[in-house]
Amino acid sequence: MAKKYVYSFDEGNKDMRTLLGGKGANLAEMTRLGINVPFGFTVSTEACIRYYDESEQLWDELVKEIEANIKKTEEKVGKKFGDDTNPLLFSVRSGAVVSMPGMMDTVLNLGLTDVSVEGLAKHTDNPRFAYDSYRRFIQMFSNVSKGLDVEKFEEILADERKKAGVELDKDIPAENLKEVVRRYKELYKEETGHDFPQDPEQQLLDAVAAVFKSWNNERARYYRNMNDIAHDLGTAVNVQTMVFGNGGDNSGTGVAFTRDPSTGENILYGEYLINAQGEDVVAGIRTPSHISELEKQMPEIYKQFHETGERLEQHYRDMQDLEFTIDDGTLYILQTRNGKRTAQAAINIAVDLVEEGLRTKEEALMMINPNDLDQLLHPTFNQEALSKATPVARGLAASPGAATGYISFSAGDATLRNAKEEPVILARTETSPEDLQGMDSAKGILTSRGGMTSHAAVVARGMGKCCVAGAHEVHINEKEKTVTIGDLVLGEGDMISLDGSTGNIYHGQIETQDPELTGKFAKFMEWADENRRLKVRANADTPHDAQQALDLGAEGIGLCRTEHMFFAEDRINAVREMILASTKEQREKALAKIEPIQENDFYEIYKVMEDKNVTVRLLDPPLHEFLPHTDEEIAIVADELGVTILEQKKAIDELHEVNPMLGHRGLRLAITFPEIYQMQARAIIRAALRVSKELGVEVEPEIMIPLAGDPRELKVVTDSIRKEIEQIFEETGITLNYHIGTMIEIPRATLLADEIAEIAEFFSFGTNDLTQMTYGFSRDDAGKFLSQYLDDGIFEKDPFQVIDQKGVGQLMANAVKLGKRTRKDLHLGICGEHGGEPSSVAFCDDLGLDYVSCSPFRVPISRLSAAQKTIRDRQHKMTRLVESL
Ligand code: PEP
Ligand code: MG
Questions:
Q1: Are 259 and 267 in contact (CB under 8 A)?
Q2: Topology at the third CATH level for domain 6-244
Q3: Ligand 2: distance of its center to the CA of 203 in Å?
Q4: Residue 67, Cβ neighbours under 10 Å: how many?
Q5: Residue 410 DSSP symbol
Q6: Residue-wise DSSP of 791-847
Q7: Dihedral (Cα; 798, 804, 807, 808), 10-degree rounding
Q8: Contact criterion met (CB below 8 Å) for 321 and 339
Q9: Which ligand is nearest to the CA of 771?
Q10: pLDDT below 70 — which residues of the chain?
Q11: Measured in angstroms, how far is the CA atom of residue 175 from the centroid of ligand 2?
């Protein structure tokens, strides 16, 4: 039997999306349910694929199938296609498997000819309506099928409006519409060299081919690239009996959601127009009425619509987005689909659906894209204010949220202005650890250099602060205090607004609103926690961040970066003395100044976290990052160390490195200056002892050594720390359990993980550095060229955001396997940025890690991602079980 390509609406169902497209499958499903859907048929996506295989021609069998379905529709509807007195007309619409709203083409009122338009006028006793339908058809068909410019048609229409002395299309009299039709046909002939087709079947075949063609138009291809939709799926074509919303005041058309798509509230939400066709609602020329008005205007229709909406919602077990037409007092449903919604609405609807008994908790958890939770956790722009603003430039969407403020060019200035309660945006070419306080004081951060794991991006995400990084078209001159974007030059007195979720930069102030973490959000997250295996910790290095992490559901701290503590004003000079010390004594003297302060830092963090796990990482960055810059700063340190300014400058120069990322950093510092890590270890243990005693809880410190690549270097450093700790126990007569582990962030460490695990009690994957060193891409510079890799499709994803499972992931898997071989109970985690990215979290679950650690504001995302991974695994297991029966 020949392959079937065309399905009438009573032959399909909702599970046939791949073949019939989303719209076609749902039209068939509604027909099956007995809902009043204008009858018709769907030409399948397979037909579209074959159309492209057959040099863009419709083949004979397909034409025969279409003809058979026209006949079937004629019988159902009781009208004839091409009839001269009461013609059956069709709408022809695209319908892809994945919805691509507005990207492809539609033709309405198809089947009208010079003769049948007269028949329609007589039959409906409404020539105005008949000619209005005909002129719409000619315009749409000419544009969609022959590519003629809509503007030329609009000019003719405007001219006739003028001649008739009316403002709106709906007021153009029939006589003028007849003239419009005449002129449209004349234009058609001029442009194509042919008369406007008068054979309805030819019109239909042309329109079907045109919809197939529109699958590959420029905007559809762009949309698919943007949304990761495959180009070879093809579109279906839905050919449906026309019903008319434009036949008079007893008719109309509209769209509605079964719940409010911005809040999730369980009320009908939508709009409609009386005496109009669908495109009038979209065109925005007339202002539609709110759907609640329909209850007053047409109570019986409203009741039917309301009931149908509820029924479809129950059936699909999700909020529906409906299109409807009222044709002379009869309600028809033209489309239903799961409605798009904001993140806030999505959570509220998911929780409500569980409480209404329509969904299980597991299903509700699977309804939310974890990344969408981001929208809920940060300030956002007021949508109305945003709709009036146009971006002046764009950078990387480095840390989500919305911010608006005056431009500030230095950390110091940002701090000062913040103290005066002035909102500021810190604008820097790039940031460094020195800018920390200024970043904390700013509402948002803008940089013109750096990628997604640049300092600005990582720190901003940690703070939950909006950041647009690497905006190459923005020139920031810190000296001149100017921000230049093309011809636009802005200074300290100007306001800018940043959208860290899109990377957009706006000139001027845009109102923002704070997030509301409602009861339903908390409930939803509780369900996620009940369903996950992976633990979720946070990267946090201040008591404030630690508290925020706890509030967002973190179960511990997976990475406390101690370098951030070194920059605070009360200690930076002592840190500089330590670095520039030329003797051990000088260094120890400086360290003695830092030690009590550092102990207090840990004490405060432990106090917040109590007995929850806290992994403190010892000093990591190259020392030169802490060096004094200005003459004044240099003089202070020189004075303290008793050297001349010249000698001091020479010492600073000597610390300069060609490639600091691969230089004297991490545990290499402790090989040369063991006193630094020894001091930090003492501070950690003393703080833990104090908190254990004061709060009566058992603090169990985890001390993490960064950048190990060789077992012997790790052993030297670990032994030296352990000795210090044991000495404290001896001195105080009190002990506690503690663990020394390492970051796995150098490829060599993953290859020698069995030997590393002989020394380290735990591993935490530092996938920022591991990605950098596996690819040989600088974290700070890759942003400049990686975008090209993504644009050209060489890479699907930025490996600094999404774990490269093939390469970096293979090294991780190797480290897990070798590490566990040596130490069965090796505790495993990840603390690179990937710990907050859904697909990477799922990968970590597969690797059998114990936890992921991410910025506090990504903790809910990781909690949900981990839950979804567990649920998916459970579902696969069930499927396999069923298959094996
Ligand atoms: C890493 O390298 O993944 C990491 C967490 O450490 P940092 O970003 O501080 O180098
Ligand atoms: Mg690192």
A1: yes
A2: Dna Ligase; domain 1 (3.30.1490)
A3: 64
A4: 15
A5: S
A6: HTTS-SS-TTTS--TTTHHHHHHHHHHHHHHH-TT-EEEE-SGGGGSHHHHHHHHHH
A7: 100
A8: yes
A9: 1
A10: 279-286, 453, 516, 518
A11: 77
Closest ligand 1 atom to residue 458 Cα is: 8
- Report the candidate in 400, 373, 402 with the shortest Cα–Cα distance to residue 386: 402
CA–CA dist 542, 566 (Å, integer): 12
CA distance 721 to 60: 82
Pick from 292, 300, 238, 296: nearest CA to 37:
238
Question: 245-341 has which fold?
Answer: D-amino Acid Aminotransferase; Chain A, domain 1 (3.30.470)
State the closest ligand 1 atom to the C-alpha of 453, by its place in the atom list counted from 1: 8
Residue nearest atom 1 of ligand 1, based on CA coordinates: 766
- Whole-angstrom distance, CA of residue 689 vs CA of residue 679: 15
SS3 538: strand
- Render pLDDT for 315-341 as a digit per residue (tens, 0 to 9): 999 999 999 999 999 999 999 999 988
Domain boundaries, the chain: 6-244, 245-341, 379-513, 531-622+657-854
- Domain covering 379-513 in this structure, CATH number: 3.50.30.10
- Can you give the pLDDT at residue 283? 57
- Sequence-distant (6+) residues with CB within 8 A of 353 are 317, 318, 359, 364, 367
**In sequence order, which residues have a C-beta less than 8 Å from that of residue 738 and are 6 or more positions away?**
685, 688, 700, 701, 702, 703, 725
Closest Cα to residue 344, out of 588, 518, 501? 518
pLDDT at residue 790, rounded to an integer: 87
Q: Are strands 466-469 and 87-88 parallel, antiparallel or unpaired?
A: unpaired
Distance from Cα 768 to the centre of ligand 2, integer Å: 6
Which structure tokens are listed for 353? 């659906």
Q: Which residue has the tokens 């298959």?
A: 883
Give the model's pLDDT for residue 606.
98
830 alpha carbon, closest ligand = 1
Per the CB < 8 A criterion, the answer to whether 263 and 300 are in contact is no
Cα 260–chain centre separation: 21
DSSP letter (8 states) at residue 359: S
**Atom 6 in ligand 1: residue holding the nearest Cα:** 766
Counting from 1 in the atom list of ligand 1, the atom nearest the Cα of 772 is: 2
Instruction: Report the C-alpha dihedral over residues 614, 666, 450, 495, rounded to 10 degrees.
Output: 50
| 300 phi, psi to nearest 5 deg | -70, -40
Nearest ligand 1 atom, CA 559: 5
Distance (Å, whole) CA 739 – CA 548? 25
Q: What is the DSSP string of 260-306?
A: -TTT--SS-EEEEEES--HHHHHHTSSPPEEHHHHHHHSHHHHHHHH
Ligand 1 mean position, distance from CA 436 (Å): 17
The DSSP element (H or E) to which 852 belongs, if any, is: strand 851-854
The two structure tokens encoding residue 831 = 């603390």
Pocket, ligand 1, Cβ cutoff 6 A? 458, 559, 561, 620, 745, 766-769, 831-832
> What is the per-residue DSSP string for 192-233?
HSSPPP--HHHHHHHHHHHHHHHTTSHHHHHHHHHTT--TTS
Residues with a known catalytic role: 455, 831
The CA 441 to ligand 2 mean position distance, Å, reads: 25
Q: Which ligand ends up closest to the CA of 619?
A: 1
Q: At the top level of CATH, which class does the domain 531-622+657-854 belong to?
A: alpha beta
What is the CB neighbour count within 10 angstroms for residue 861?
24
414, 421 Cβ separation under 8 angstroms: no
pLDDT recorded at residue 501: 84
